[in-house]
Design a protein that fits this description.
The complex is a heterodimer of chains A (463) and B (96). Chain A has 463 residues and is an alpha/beta fold. Chain A contains 17 helices and six strands. In chain A, strands 3-2-1-4-5-6 form a six-stranded parallel beta sheet. In chain A, helix 5 runs antiparallel to helix 8. Chain B is an all-alpha fold. Chain B is flat. Chain B has a domain of 61 residues. Classes of the chains: A alpha/beta (463), B mainly alpha (96). Chains A and B meet through helix 1, helix 2, helix 3, helix 4 and helix 8 of A and helix 1, helix 2, helix 3 and helix 4 of B.
């Protein structure tokens, strides 16, 4: 294949990625789009295998087989509730690949004693830095999501200063590496080590509730790292795909930030949730909650004309999505209508709730966005809040002293009655008291969401 | 700066804006598959990984190349398969 033909074929692959993303505009065409994107990838891989000078085919074959087999196994076995962890790991793997390619390109030139041109040198350093930060940062995000480490922000004195000094050190070492005429390896190893450390330090001060933003951002980094690798090996399909993924992640993290009424800087450096429940001036002193039995909840739901379910991460933890769907069917059979109101930051990643409900066979046209459902909330008979907390906290509208003041919420309190399924009266991730629970219209159904709903289901069936 | 770097930069900036325009139109309900699907796309680093792994420049390069191919293929295979698995579940209710 001539170099020109090669470039054209890579262009075809890039176009297929773009068409694939375009088809994600509707759930009806999305699956087909994913397949188109996959064909693009296949074309790119086959083209590389044909055109690249391959002196060690066994290494390549082994790599392709091992990577595909593990990837396939992970994709087939991962639970839908664990999807945030899966995406965190995939982000990290993408970063690792860029780090390794950048590192190998550098060592190759150094070992054969070639002087690396400055612009290639810059892109190599960037692909190492961004790749390494993405890799270790994603592993920390995974550990927080998997709860193998604390979801609380880890903070220590001088945190920002230390991270800042390390970032400057990376820049200084990179510049030194590029400028020196000598063939030095130690600055390279130092850059790799500090970059890996930076990834850890940048993610540990971010609380578990902010992981949706972090995952989206690391998604973006993994794309930018891929684009940098594209600069290193001068291949436009890497630059295009990397840029697409890079802007996708940035946009998603902006959407998440807007849905929390916070800036990206506040999410990254604000150590939100570290202060504990003392954040709000309002406390629960003197207010009482009304607890109900599954029988009462069943009666309320069975005779409701219009029900809105507001799911949160608690639904995922309790694996309650299938029970929710069963209740939806029972209510519909009795002539009522059920919709789902999804807050943009419900769950641990963008769109997490939608995937769980889709898994439970809930039709996607029943899922409503916050802005669509809010004007209708006044006419809703029962709002059922399952494992959600901050996203329905009316304090966000009224309590200027609340840490979440100004965050757009789903107006569950506007419904004629509210049922909140909750394990206990413990505060949400942000550690903020929720006055919705003390509302006269609210009934609390305490216990594991799945068990409570199962009881409600059998009660409705008996009515 | 060299011509290739400038050329790459032009492509990078334009593709970033294209990406923004495309992603802005993806409904929130598909944001999780969007992320796993874009993970798969960023597995395109496999192209660079294959070149490095196949170059046969001694054992260090081979080891790094091998690991790079493994990680990139994890992204490619894992990303596309899990996205397909998710998108298969998104169904509209059939009219009864």
């Amino acid at each position: 294949m001539s170099p020109a033909a090669e470039r054209l074929v890579y262009l075809v692959a890039a176009v297929l990625f773009i068409v694939g993303l375009q088809r994600l505009q509707s759930p009806a065409t999305a699956r087909n789009g994913n397949a188109i994107s996959g064909v693009g990838m296949l074309i790119a891989i086959v083209t590389t295998l044909i055109t690249a000078e391959i002196l060690s085919p066994l290494v390549i074959l082994a790599g392709l087989l091992v990577g595909s087999a593990i990837g396939f196994w992970m994709a087939r076995t991962v639970k839908m509730t664990s999807m945030p962890q899966m995406v965190a790991l995939l982000n990290g793997f993408g970063g690792a690949a860029s780090l390794l390619v950048g590192g190998a390109e550098f060592l190759k030139s150094e070992l054969v004693g070639e002087q690396i041109p400055v612009d290639t040198g810059i892109t190599i350093q960037l692909s190492i830095l961004i790749g390494a930060v993405t890799f270790t940062g994603s592993l920390i995000a995974w550990a927080k999501l998997q709860e193998v480490m604390t979801g609380k922000p880890i903070i220590y004195p001088g945190q920002k200063a230390i991270s800042g000094v390390l970032a400057l050190a990376v820049v200084g070492l990179s510049v030194y590496q590029l400028m020196t005429a000598e063939s030095l390896l130690w600055p390279f190893y130092a850059v790799v080590a500090i970059s890996l450390l930076l990834g850890v330090l940048l993610v540990i001060p971010i609380g578990g509730a902010d992981m949706p933003v972090v995952i989206a951002l690391l998604n973006s980094y993994s794309g930018i790292a891929a684009a940098m690798t594209g600069f290193v090996i001068d291949n436009s399909v890497l630059i295009i795909s990397g840029a697409l993924v890079g802007s996708s992640g940035i946009i998603l993290s902006q959407i998440m930030c807007k849905a929390m009424n916070r800036s990206l800087a506040n999410v990254l450096f604000g150590a939100f949730g570290a202060a504990g429940p003392s954040g709000s001036a309002k406390s629960s002193a003197g207010m009482s909650v009304r607890s109900v039995t599954p029988e009462d909840a069943a009666i309320q739901l069975a005779y409701a004309q219009s029900v809105v379910v507001i799911p949160g991460y608690g639904m995922a933890v309790a694996q309650a999505q299938h029970a929710v769907r069963e209740i939806q069917e029972l209510i519909e059979k009795r002539g009522g209508e059920v919709k789902y109101a999804i807050h943009p930051v419900a769950g641990r990643m963008p769109g997490h709730m939608n995937v769980l409900l889709a898994e439970a066979n809930v039709s996607y046209d029943k899922l409503r966005e916050m802005d669509d459902i809010n004007p209708e909330m006044d006419r809703v008979d029962v709002a059922v809040v399952i494992g959600a907390n901050d996203v329905v906290n009316p304090g966000a509208r009224t309590d200027t002293s609340s840490p979440i003041y100004g965050m757009p919420i789903i107006n569950a309190d506007h419904a004629k009655s509210i049922i909140v399924l909750k394990r206990s009266m413990a505060a949400g991730f942000a550690g903020i008291e929720n006055e919705l629970f003390y509302n006269a219209k609210t009934s609390m159904l305490f216990g594991d969401a799945k068990q409570s709903l199962t009881k409600v289901i059998s009660e409705i069936k008996q009515l | 700066m060299s011509e290739t770097l400038i050329g790459g930069l032009v492509i990078f900036v334009l593709a970033t804006f294209l990406g923004a325009a495309l992603i802005g139109r993806v409904p929130p309900t598909l944001h999780t598959p969007l992320m796993s699907g874009s993970n798969a796309i960023s597995g395109i680093t496999v192209v660079g990984a294959l070149i490095v792994a196949g170059a046969g420049l001694g054992w260090i390069s081979s080891v790094l190349g091998f690991l790079a191919v493994v990680f990139a293929m994890l992204n490619v295979a894992g990303g596309y398969v899990v996205t397909d698995r998710m998108l298969l579940m998104f169904k509209k209710e059939e009219k009864r």
